[in-house]
Amino acid sequence: MISQWQLRAAFAARLSDMYGREVPAYTTLVDVSREVNEDVLRAQGADAQRLGSISRVTAERHGAIRVGTPRELRQVARIFGALGMRPVGFYDLREAAASAIPVVSTAFRPVDGEELARNPFRVFTSLLTPADPRFFDADLRARLETFLAGRKLFPPELLTLADRADAERELPEPEAERFLQLAVAAFELSTEPVDKAWYETLERVSAVAADIGGVRSTHINHLTPRVLDIDELYRRMTDRGIEMIDTIQGPPAWKGPDVLLRQTSFRALAEPRALRLTDGTVTRGALRVRFGEVEARGIALTREGRALYDHLLTVVDSEAAHRPEADRSDVARTVWEEHLPHSEQELAARKLAYFTYHAAPDRPRDGAQPPSALGELLSQGWVRAEPIVYEDFLPRSAAGIFQSNLNGEGSRNNDQEGASYDAEWLSGAMGREVLDPFALYEEQQNASLARVTEQLGQKPLA
To answer: What family is reported (predicted)?
Structure first.
């Protein structure tokens, strides 16, 4: 029998192999990421694995796909449910970018700590929003919804096997092999000709809308390895002649703790595609939609820490606007150094980041009572804190990656009121609850605090 985590690991590996064949620059990205990780491990030793073992980091990937309807999203949820992946977080990219990006998103991933350690594969999944009149007028919306209703992304056999794996949490080896073959094939780039006029109609609204609703299939949009030094990777990729986007999205590089998520990518490549003209003839053309992303993960921030992070982004925006001659990354670094704690211990003491807590094996044994405050327990050596890795995404960073790989801004009518989408709506659309990432981190942290309380013989720690 093949368990869900084994299915997940095999699917991630096969998807990576397939994408590498389709987009050779992705293979270069993986190779350079591995080289950087090996160099960081040699230089930093055990410290390099503070946010995950090198085996986990090396195997780690996240993918991105885009679908057009709630029905398609429900089917995707069934496929990822077979892999032990649940929808976590709601991201509204419509509000996070200046360009027209008419999608809302969630991320499917494992949620249990042990499952994450085995294989933390995630898929950032975006859903088109045809009901938003800022992007689609009534006529285009009707045409788009008709087009989407007439396509079938996933074969019934794949969905049946997915439901079985989800219910039984495993599959016999022959069925597991068949599931993997069908699942990987479902995300390959189709060779079916693209209706050129229809694609271009949607592309005038948004290149993302065209990528979703302008074709009769879906595909893996990008795959993302994890790297321990994203600035060094950016330099090495550029030295190899690969065109990267202009910036690294997310927090700046600085001397303090790494928090949340930093991302960058090489630019979307012009890929040969068959295009069908209005007279029915097929010609060769190129579409530019897929790219290679890379990420560096940091510590998960609490709600208070995230509020501080979001506030600091507005500070950086304001200062950068008043100092156009300054490098934005330098501005951000200065703001970070002024306002963020410079150590993990201070992050923990101020309850700005999530940690798992452990009674220190070399804690005081002289009969003294441990202090009641968490900060004092840390500073006096009673308790040690291990950072919880941020497993999720940042809407502004995701939108920044999408936007950096678009050919144009698209069109958006801000005189119209946007359609309302939220996590509750998305949960109903797919028939599965969109989980709150903060609640997942809090649950992990609180379980560790309860163990520490028991070991030290204390009242519950706040």
So the answer is: Belongs to the 2-oxoadipate dioxygenase/decarboxylase family.
